[in-house]
Amino acid sequence: MEPPVSYPQSDSYQGRKIYGKRSGCAGKGCFGIIGALVIIVAVVAIGYFFVFPALTPNSISGSFLDAEIVPTKSGEQKLWVLTDGSFNFIQTTKSPGRTSTGRECYFCKTWTYIIDPKDRTVEKKIKTPYEDIITQIDLFYQDGKVWAFTRDYGENEPQIEAFDPETGDKVMDTKQFLAKFPELSAGLATAYFDKADGVIRMKTKDGLDGLLYRISDGRLFKDFSTMRKETTKDSSEISIAILAGENSTSSPRKKLYRITGPANRIEDNFSSLDNSAADSDRMKDFKLSSESMGGKVYLEGILYHTDKDCAIIIYLDQLGKKSNRLMTCIDLKTGKEKWTLGKDDLFEKMQIDEEDDAFSSLFFTKDKIGVKRRGGLVILQLQYEGLMGFDFETGKKLWEMDI
């Protein structure tokens, strides 16, 4: 069997590379060169992953995964930033008649940083080791806890953990979470956090599928229909924001609407609202009301964040292979635009240039973008790039972190 050959990861945003190259050398001289290269790589890796973090406790290292705005008892806000601190590389192994290539990692771990957003000082740094490649971890704040949901991959089993927002100490691990429910006693096979609904969708090792844990009230449901029945009991009047296509859900021209009515009626018809919001007769059939928020068209718009105060939309300035993204914040109480940010205010890599790079297209990049807002702070995050912070009232950029 030929020795494994390692190549730099094609999207190596951390700049860490391992090279293995077959040469024409033979004998002890060749082994000496290879041995020296291995030693050099090992020394560099040890320095980067152990010595450098120890000497620079207040610096942020690793590849950006997720962030969350967390309120504290003092009324201030902290920024929790999660990075992948693993040594990632692509390894190709060759044998007679077979070649296999896959992503590998050494020193697999994450760093969680608790940061004061006013001056970007690191107040605490938490290391979490993993057994295998880290694919996705979501942070989520709810009712005095910071939750972390780890997607399963390889040797990494799904994890559900909660932390104290004041100290950063872990207050619940996966075993403690599972112990709360007899249905989960066999352990988790998969777990996926749905940010839109605020639920964890789970499958157990003994075959129970479709289980849902709702973060807001700590309840476990055996399936979606059971959870929905509970929701339909709520007849209180609410308002939500919907970004709807002009003529159909596939239309690139989107407009923002405020839908008002009983919570159970909105839940029952939610899947139809994005193509019915502009149809007053259809909305009457649903026993709901619809109001246009300004009438502005958002090309290929995506509603990345909404709450009782605002809706934040990212969209294109024009259609085509070359375009720029814009970000607009709408005041839902008045329907007026609070602010709009252009290409000079956002990440350069949010621009689309399919002629230069097909992977910069809307399809490939839309899921790498995230927007969160709490209090007076709005954060824009771009996977593998970093974070930007903006003032909620004015849209002024407060800071930028390249991670």
Task: Describe the structure in your own words.
The structure is a single chain. With about 400 residues, this protein is an alpha+beta fold. It folds into two domains: about 5-70 and about 85-135, no CATH class; about 235-400, Thrombin, subunit H (Beta Barrel), CATH 2.40.10.480. It contains seven helices and 28 strands. The protein has helices at about 25-55, 175-180, 225-230, 265-270, 270-275, 280-285, 360-365; strands at about 5, 65-70, 75-85, 85-95, 100-105, 110-115, 120-130, 135-140, 145-150, 160-165, 170, 190-195, 200-205, 210-215, 220, 235-245, 255-260, 290, 300-305, 310-315, 320-325, 325-330, 335-340, 350-355, 370-375, 375-380, 385-390, 395-400. Strands 16, 17, 18, 19, 20, 22 and 23 form a seven-stranded antiparallel β-sheet that branches. The protein has a four-stranded antiparallel β-sheet with strand order 2-3-6-7, with no helix packed on it. A four-stranded antiparallel β-sheet has the order 8-9-10-11. The protein is globular, with a radius of gyration of 24 Å. Mean pLDDT is about 85; it is low at about 1-25.
Summarize this structure as a short list of keywords or feature phrases.
403 residues, Thrombin, subunit H, 2 domains, four-stranded antiparallel beta sheet, 7 helices
Question: Which helices and strands occur, and which strands form pairs?
Answer:
Elements: E1 5-7, H1 27-55, E2 63-71, E3 77-84, E4 87-95, E5 98-106, E6 109-116, E7 121-129, E8 137-142, E9 145-150, E10 159-163, E11 170-172, H2 174-179, E12 188-194, E13 199-204, E14 209-214, E15 219-221, H3 224-231, E16 237-245, E17 253-262, H4 263-268, H5 270-273, H6 280-285, E18 289-292, E19 298-306, E20 310-316, E21 322-323, E22 325-331, E23 337-341, E24 352-353, H7 362-365, E25 369-374, E26 377-382, E27 386-391, E28 397-402
Antiparallel strand pairs: 1-4, 2-3, 3-6, 4-5, 6-7, 8-9, 9-10, 10-11, 12-13, 13-14, 14-15, 16-17, 17-18, 17-19, 19-20, 20-22, 21-24, 22-23, 25-26, 26-27, 27-28
